[in-house]
Write a structure and sequence with these properties.
With 146 residues, this protein is of the alpha+beta class. Helices cover 34% and strands 28% of the residues. The protein has a three-stranded mixed β-sheet with strand order 2-1-6. Helix 1 (34-44) packs across helix 2 (49-68).
Length: 146
């Protein structure tokens, strides 16, 4: 199985002048939900689907509680969950008070083992995008009338 991607045109001005370049962009094959994950784990282990769902619910609660209390949560083989914070900018550090700080995002920094596991991923251009490109190549350029 391969990972599909699309090609997107993006503006860039690294050299000082505005240019357009084409970059690969991920195209997800879909999203699997908690029940599907639990079923796959059930099929691969001695845990029941209910056991797995209970463990996922408990893990979520632990991560939420620990992050709210200033901890990062490292799950070996998966990664480290942490909280990003944000605030408006201030000209005086004393004005950056606790009630002006907001939780940003919950971040997941992938474990090195997980990162390493994706080496060798096979990529394939999105088939529908490729068909469209191929159809454009087959079209003949318009001729000028005299």
């Amino acid at each position: 199985m391969s990972y599909q991607y699309k090609v997107k045109k993006k503006k860039t001005s690294l050299s000082g002048e505005l240019q357009y370049k084409f970059y690969a962009s991920p195209k997800a094959s879909g999203t699997i939900n908690t029940d599907q994950v639990a079923k796959e784990i059930e099929d691969a282990t001695t845990f029941t689907k209910s056991d797995v769902l209970g463990a996922i619910a408990a893990l979520t609660a632990v991560i939420e509680r620990r992050i709210k209390n200033g901890y990062s949560v490292k799950l070996n083989g998966l990664g480290t969950f942490s909280l990003s914070v944000t605030s408006e900018g201030f000209t005086d550090a004393a004005k950056c008070t606790p009630h002006k700080v907001k939780a940003g995002k919950i971040c997941l920094r992938a474990d090195s083992k997980l990162k390493k596991s994706i080496e060798g991923t096979v990529f394939e251009r999105d088939i529908y995008e490729q068909r469209y490109i191929d159809s454009l190549k087959k079209k003949k350029p318009a001729t000028k009338l005299k």
